[in-house]
C-alpha cells in the first residue's frame, strides 16, 4: 500500500481516502498503484458491500502528477501503465466518489468511472488536458459526454474552465450536492442503503454493457441475462416486505 492512501472499514463499507495534500492530492505512481490494489482488494473481499473514494481537504485531486511519472521502476512515464480509473470500472461492487474539492483532469476521469458521485458544495470540476498539451488516457472522452452530453463535454475539454458543484448537478455529472461537513456522513448513509444481494453486481454489469449498445440491444441483453432463472417466491415475498418497511422508515 501507500503512505498516501488511507484505508478504513466501517461496517460493510470500505473508505479509501487520498492523502497527499502537499501535492494537491495529485496521483503519482505509488498512489495510483495503491488505488488499483485497493480496488482489487475490495472487489475480492466478501465483507465489502461498497467502496467510498474521497480525499483529504482542501481538494479532491489535481489529477495525474506529471512531475513524478518516473517513480515506478521500469516505467515509460505513461499514465496508461497504472490506471486507477480502469481499476474502478472493473470492480463488481458500487464505488461512490465523494468529491470534497477541486477535481481536475485525471481525477475527473476517476470520478466518472465511479458508480455515482456525491459532491461537497465546495467541489469544482475541470478538464485541463488540452491546456497542458496532453491527451486523456483514462476514459474522459468516452465517459464525460455520456454523463453531461457531448456539447457540454466539448466545452469543458476545450476551454478547461471549472464548473461548480451546482452546475455539475444540473448537467448530471454528480448525483447530489451536500454541505461540506456532511459529505462523508451523507455518502456513508447512501452506501448503507445498498443491499447485500449479488443482484447489485449483476445490475452494474448490465448498465456497463448497455452503454455500448443500442436501446434494442440493451433490452435484449437484460432479457437474455435472466433467461432460465428461477425465483424463490417465499424469499422474494419476505424481501419485498422488508424493503417496503424500510422505505416507510419502520426498520
UniProtKB/TrEMBL annotation:
Keywords in alphabetical order: Lyase
InterPro entries per UniProt: ClpP/crotonase-like_dom_sf, Enoyl-CoA_hydra/iso
Superkingdom: Bacteria
Gene3D superfamilies hit by this protein: 2-enoyl-CoA Hydratase, Chain A, domain 1
Any one GO molecular-function label of the UniProt entry: enoyl-CoA hydratase activity
Keyword Lyase: yes
Family statement: Belongs to the enoyl-CoA hydratase/isomerase family.
PANTHER family reported for this sequence: ENOYL-COA HYDRATASE, IP11341P-RELATED
Name of the featured protein: Enoyl-CoA hydratase
Source species of the chain: Nocardia vinacea
Species lineage: Bacteria, Bacillati, Actinomycetota, Actinomycetes, Mycobacteriales
Amino acid at each position: 500500500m501507500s503512505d498516501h492512501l488511507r484505508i478504513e472499514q466501517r461496517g460493510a463499507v470500505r473508505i479509501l481516502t487520498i492523502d497527499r495534500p502537499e501535492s494537491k492530492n495529485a496521483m503519482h505512481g505509488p498512489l495510483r498503484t495503491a488505488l488499483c490494489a485497493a480496488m482489487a482488494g475490495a472487489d475480492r473481499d466478501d465483507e465489502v458491500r461498497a467502496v467510498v473514494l474521497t480525499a483529504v481537504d482542501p481538494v479532491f485531486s489535481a489529477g495525474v502528477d506529471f512531475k513524478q511519472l518516473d517513480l515506478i521502476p521500469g516505467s515509460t512515464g505513461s499514465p496508461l501503465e497504472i490506471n486507477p480509473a480502469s481499476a474502478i470500472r472493473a470492480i463488481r461492487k458500487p464505488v461512490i466518489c465523494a468529491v470534497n474539492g477541486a477535481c481536475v483532469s485525471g481525477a475527473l476521469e476517476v470520478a466518472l468511472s465511479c458508480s455515482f458521485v456525491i459532491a461537497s458544495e465546495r467541489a469544482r470540476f475541470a478538464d485541463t488536458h488540452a491546456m497542458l498539451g496532453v491527451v486523456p488516457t483514462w476514459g474522459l472522452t468516452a465517459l464525460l459526454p455520456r454523463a453531461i452530453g457531448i456539447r457540454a463535454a466539448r466545452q469543458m475539454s476545450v476551454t478547461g474552465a471549472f464548473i461548480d458543484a451546482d452546475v455539475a448537478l444540473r448537467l448530471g455529472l454528480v448525483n447530489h450536492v451536500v454541505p461540506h461537513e456532511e459529505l462523508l456522513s451523507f455518502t456513508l448513509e447512501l452506501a448503507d442503503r445498498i443491499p447485500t444481494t449479488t443482484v447489485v453486481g449483476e445490475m452494474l454489469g448490465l448498465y456497463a454493457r448497455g452503454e455500448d449498445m443500442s436501446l434494442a440491444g440493451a433490452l435484449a441483453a437484460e432479457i437474455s441475462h435472466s433467461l432460465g432463472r428461477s425465483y424463490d417466491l417465499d424469499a422474494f415475498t419476505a424481501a419485498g416486505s422488508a424493503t417496503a418497511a424500510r422505505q416507510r422508515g419502520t426498520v
